[in-house]
Amino acid sequence: MVAQATDVGRYVVPNRHCFKIEYLDAFDFLSEEFQTLYETSNATVFQHPLWLHLMYQNLIPKCGVDPVIITVRDPNNGSLKSVLPLVRSSYVGLSCIEPADLGICDYNAAITVKELGDDLLSDDRLREKIINELRPVHLIFFRKVSKSCEVIEQMLGEGDVGVMESCAHDVDLFAPYEDWKKAIMSSSFRKTLRRNRRKLEEFGEVSYEVLDDPVEIQLAMDLMREQRSARYDDDLFQQDAFFDFYSKVAKEGARIGLAQTSILRAGGDVVAVEFGLIHNHCYHFILGGITEGRYAKLSPGILAMDYVLEFRAEQGDLRADFTIGDEAYKARFGATPTPLKHMAQAESLMGSLALQAYNQGGLIKTIAKKVVNMTSQRFG
């Protein structure tokens, strides 16, 4: 039985076995119950309450997709047990259900209390109930999963689970930073960093600054947009909707410890801007911009990363995440690749053909690769 929809598009499906399932087009990601759920889950920084709040409030309405949010609650006390932040999109007539990614999330996940996994897996009717309410749809496509797909499969279908070509890249971090560099970096790379730091000092006093004032953060984001405009094709950061989203995350995230915007100065010039996210004592490199010209030969983006890592090690971080993309510089910082997974469930003949095309390198995969390339545009 499906309850009547309300004005906000809310559907409730009673689950006689374990759970109450809701289908929403709006959800309060800043609520205390979601904050508690997130903190007790294995979700990533890209499912943070503020990130999802700003995405659904400010970005999704401007991107031609429809919000689809699935919640799973305890039938007895109504407590929130799981949330799947999704969107319904269309590619050349192909209707897809996919994570609320929009090309800017490096990792997608269900936000689920850790102890719920076994209960979800024991409910053999859960998947049927969820998918029935998602239809009509050609393809359910959940990409960029950094951990197990088991819970996602149970909720969205036991479809094609595979390994993506793109990898995540991370490395353990510790202080003192110089000890870390000696343990992780090659001697030649450390020498290059020292040499470029000295050469940068020839342009004037060098300083690395972490910004907390909203006005200064906005100025840094404006500069980074200008810096990136000539370097990257199809840079989402140049689009107003995405730029406004990142700017809001940077300013509001700085207030709660989610985001860090920093600049590297030499003399009177800002030679690099770096924006990242922080979660579970891990700094995630998200976006960067550099001033080229006379600084280009000094690899200011790489130098900025060096300063960021030094600062984060001093703050007690235990890991640095260079996120998605297989750029060579990541290995120089000791980052190791971890393959990401995808889960795809075809729900029609058209969906099956699209999935086959993806697996064989067709149009859908081309689109997916283009999105991955856009998300991996950091420093170069």
List keywords for this structure.
alpha+beta; Aminopeptidase; 14-stranded mixed beta sheet
CATH topology tier name of the largest domain: Aminopeptidase
Given the structure, what is the number of helices?
Answer: 13
Low-pLDDT runs of 5+ residues are 1-8, 368-376
Helical content (DSSP H or I, runs of 4+): 25-40%
Q: What's the helix-strand series?
A: EEHHEEEEHHEHEHHEHHEEEHEHEHH
Q: Beta-sheet strand percentage?
A: 25-35%
**Could you name the CATH class of the largest domain?**
Alpha Beta
What summary fits the major beta sheet?
Answer: 14 strands, mixed
What is the overall silhouette? elongated
**β-strand number:** 14
Structural class: alpha+beta
Instruction: Please name the CATH architecture of the largest domain.
Output: 3-Layer(aba) Sandwich
Count of spatially separate domains: 2
Oligomer: single chain
Query: Which value, in Å, is the CA radius of gyration?
Result: 22 Å
What integer is the average pLDDT?
Answer: 89
First-to-last CA distance: 53 Å
CATH superfamily of the largest domain: Gcn5-related N-acetyltransferase (GNAT)
Describe the structure.
The protein is an alpha+beta fold. It has two domains: 191 residues, Aminopeptidase (3-Layer(aba) Sandwich); 144 residues, Aminopeptidase, CATH 3.40.630.30. It has 13 helices and 14 strands. Strands 1, 2, 3, 4, 5, 6, 7, 8, 9, 10, 11, 12, 13 and 14 form a 14-stranded mixed beta sheet that branches. The termini are far apart. The N terminus is likely disordered.
